[in-house]
Design a protein that fits this description.
The chain folds into two domains: 234 residues, P-loop containing nucleotide triphosphate hydrolases (Rossmann fold); 155 residues, Rossmann fold (3-Layer(aba) Sandwich), CATH 3.40.50.720. Helices cover 31% and strands 23% of the residues.
């Protein structure tokens, strides 16, 4: 269903919201179009819930205008408002003696007669709402017996039964496990795409907001710090400023946060590329190692992950052959590191200089850990006393935990002797 219109579903002009004439947010301007998913992001206490409660008419605005389908919100009759807007707030609801079907049926009150009698169309809309949230199998259950995830889906179903054009939600995935969190967000996304419903939700998960939203509003310091598409608004600087975080960095290319750790365990040089190093960087960061890496082509997945984690990153342009200055710089940095990791990158004409880095590390007597499945040919002519095969991530992590005590499996063709403790 497409409810596209020249008139925004919701338009806010110079809005101030708060409690008892004390403003929490001021000077808000934005418009929500039909079928958009809009995320409100910001730290706890920033005013996201106060804004939603004002938009839903639970609180009066302190100043400014709220237009719903071009009409002043304050002038809409309650029944007219309920036919346009549905609300799912964080208030705990546990109605006694209601089945799920009966509870969802409460959402039909704007469309029934004054006695609240359900007609065939109402029954059909109730069933459609349950199906939309994948909860039709719950309809005979008691609402009070449901899990948190099931309750959240049923609350959304009750809101959908109103047949709204705008759905307001306050932290719809709070307290939910991963499965129900993903399921609820997928349901909300589908409501926008398939039914043309506008969804305005406060969220804490920046990763999810980046992937699902058409617009994001960054709420902080008594106002709206930024508004726009997540592709333009969400970046390392804006997310760090929004949440005052230094330990995590948001990368817009990845659409996710990477956790940085204090470096207190030495420094590793990772020879990576083609996405092979991302997991290695994260494992090293988790264990407190400083990381240098190269030579990477810009816009490689490894390039973005390494940069987000704060690694020293030696790179060349996208699709460029790795040679010359980049390889020489990498060799200089490698010489200052405590050990080297071969991430198991795929071999090709453009990255043979990275193979030379591994050979150079072995000639220098550097400890080289390889996550490559078959290293016999790659290192056939090298001195192999300091070359170790880590057959999986667990073995690699164990090495990081026991730098000088771990005995490693080695590829049978190489017959590498046991190392002296480092």
């Amino acid at each position: 269903m497409n409810r596209a219109s020249a008139t925004p579903v919701l338009k806010v002009h110079n809005l101030s919201v708060g409690h008892k004439n004390i403003p929490v947010l001021q000077g808000l301007h934005f418009a929500c179009e039909a079928g958009q998913f809009i995320s409100l992001l910001g730290p706890n206490g920033a005013g996201k819930t106060t804004l939603l409660r004002t938009l839903s008419r639970h609180l009066p605005p302190l100043a400014g205008n709220i237009l719903l389908r071009g009409k002043e919100l304050t002038k809409l009759r309650a029944l007219e408002l309920a036919r346009i807007m549905a609300v799912v707030l964080t208030d705990k609801i546990s109605p006694p003696l209601f089945t799920v079907e009966e509870f969802v049926a409460l959402g039909r009150y704007p469309h029934t007669d004054y006695l609240g009698r359900l007609q065939a169309e109402d029954i059909s809309r109730i069933q459609a709402a349950l199906q939309a949230v994948r909860a039709e199998h719950l309809q005979r259950r008691q609402f009070s017996d449901l899990s948190d995830g099931e309750r959240q889906k049923v609350l959304i179903a009750r809101a959908l039964a109103q047949d709204p054009q705008l759905l307001l939600l306050d932290e719809p995935t709070v307290h939910l496990d991963l499965r129900h969190r993903m399921e609820v967000m997928a349901i909300l996304r589908d409501l926008c795409r398939c039914q043309g419903i506008t969804v305005l939700a406060s969220l804490h998960d920046v990763d999810i907001a980046a992937k699902i939203s058409d617009r994001v509003a960054l709420i902080k310091d008594n106002g709206m710090m930024a508004w726009g598409s997540p592709e333009t608004v969400l970046n390392s600087a804006s997310v760090s400023q929004l949440y005052n975080v230094e330990q995590a960095v948001f990368d817009s290319a990845l659409g996710s946060l990477e956790m940085r750790s204090p470096t207190s365990s030495g420094k590793a040089f990772v020879v990576g590329g083609m996405g092979s190093g991302a997991l290695v960087y994260r494992m090293l960061a988790k264990k407190g190692f400083a990381v240098a890496t190269g030579v990477l082509q810009k816009h490689d997945l490894d390039f973005h992950v390494a940069r987000a984690l704060g690694a020293e990153c030696i790179s060349v342009g996208p699709m460029e052959t790795i040679d010359g200055a980049g390889a020489e710089q990498a060799l200089r940095v490698l010489a200052t590191c405590d050990f080297v990791v071969d991430s198991g990158f795929a071999l090709g004409p453009a990255n043979m200089a990275n193979v030379d880095l591994l050979h150079s590390a072995l000639r220098q007597g550097k400890t080289v850990l390889s996550l490559r499945s078959d290293i016999a040919d790659l290192f056939a002519g090298d001195e192999k006393n300091s070359l170790y095969l880590c057959q999986d991530a667990d073995q690699f992590l164990t090495f990081l935990d026991t730098m000088d005590a771990m005995v490693f499996d080695r590829p049978a063709p190489l017959s590498v002797p046991q190392p002296e403790s480092m």
